[in-house]
Amino acid sequence: MAKRIQVRVNGRPLDAEVPDHWLLLDVLREVWGLTGAKEGCGEGACGACTVHLNGRPVRSCLTLAAWADGGEVTTVEGLGEPGRLHPLQEAFVRSGGFQCGYCTPGMIMAAKALLDDGIPADEAAVREALSGNICRCTGYNKIIDAVLEAIREARA
Amino acid sequence: MRLPGFELREPETLEEAIDLLGRYGGEAKAVSGGTALFILMKHRYLRPRVLIGLRRLEELRYIRPSEGGVEMGALATHRQAEQSPLLRKANRLVAEVYREVASPPIREMATVGGNLAFAEPASDPAPALLALDAEAALRGPEGERRVPLTDFFIDFYETRIGPTDLLTRVRVPRPAPRTAGAYRNFRPASVEDKTLAGVAVTLTFEEGIQRCVKAGVAVGGVLPSPRRFPEAEEVLAGSDLSDGAVEAAAERLGAALQPVSDAVASAAYKRGLAKTLFRRAVQASVASARQGRFLEV
Prior knowledge:
heterodimer, B: alpha+beta, five-stranded antiparallel sheet, 12 helices
C-alpha cells in the first residue's frame, strides 16, 4: 500500500507518494534530497537521524513517513545556509565541535530542541539533551562547549 | 535499514482500533511510538502483515488524576510523564523512572502503554509501577478488564495482552501517607545500553518515621520479566529498617531471585548487583522519608 503524504518541510510544502512501510528518513533523503539527516545505527541509539516533527525532536529512522503527513518537519537544512548560519551552527564552527561531521546534523537538532524549550540550561542539561547522540571522532567536550556558547548567546 | 512491508491502518477512534484488532487478530500489531517494535521489524524478528498505528487516538494521550491516584493514557509519552506537573506532585517516583529511559528524543516518541505492552525485561518504569501497585486496563472486543501489573507480565516480551486487546491506560493508586520510594539501576556503559538490573523500593512509615509498616520491592533487568518480591517486602514491613533488617531483606531477595546468565553477566553477578541496588534504593527511600520528601508532595 502507498499513500500520498503532504508535509511542510523547513517551511516548504512538499508531497510524495510513499509505501506504508517507508520511514521519514527514507523520504527525506531519497525523495526530497534532504541528506542532512543521516542513518547511523538505524535503531534510534545514535541520534544521527534526529529531526524535529511538529516542534519536537524525533528519530526519523523510527518514524513512519505517514506520521509526518499533515505535519511540519525541520531538518538541519532548515536552520541556516552557507554565509547565514544558525547561531548553533556558528558555535559548532567556532568551538570545533566536529571532525567528520556525520553526527553533526543530529547533534544540532537535538541541541536545538533544548534551546527551543527556553528553560535555563546548564552543562548537565546539555549533556542530558545530547545523551542520545553519538560522536565517534571528537570526544564530546567541544560539542558541549558549542551548545553552552549558543545558549549564552541566546540569553544575551 | 528498511522496515519490511506492511499495510498501515490508522484508526481515528478507540472503537475503530478495537474493531481492526478483532478483524485482523494475530496478523496485526498495534504500534504507538515505534521505538521498540520497529527495531524488531527491521531485524525481521517480527513481520506483521498489518500495523495498526495508534497516533490519532488523542483520547489516550493524557495524564490525569483518577480515583485518588493518577492515570496515564497508553499514548502518553515518556517525556510527558517525566515532565508532568501532576506526577511530580502526586507521585514523584513515576516521573523519575520515565526519565531513566534512553534519551530525550526517544522519550518524545516512546509511550507509557507501548513500554508495558512490549514487556522489555529491562524496562525502567516497570519495577516502579509494580512496586506502586499499578494496574493496566486492557480493552478487547468483549469490553475492558483491569489487570494488576503483578499479573500482567508472563515471560520474556510476553504479557496478558491478547491478540485482539489494546492496553488503554495505566492507573497508579495514591500512595499511603508517609510513603517514600526510590529506583536504582545499573547500565553497563552508556545511557543507550539497557538497564542490567533495576530495583524499585517503596516504604510506608509510621508517624515519627522510625518503623516501616508496608514495603514494595520490585526488580527488573535480571529476570525474564520484571517482578515483585514479597519475600523481601515481608522482612522490611514491621522492621525499624536497621542495617540488620535491610541486610536480612537483601539476603531474602538474593535467595528468591533466579537471574538468567547471559553474555553480559553471570547469574551470580546479577544477583549481587540486584542486592546492592536494593540496599541503595532502601537507603535512598529512608533518607527521603527522614527529610520529609515523600512520593506525594
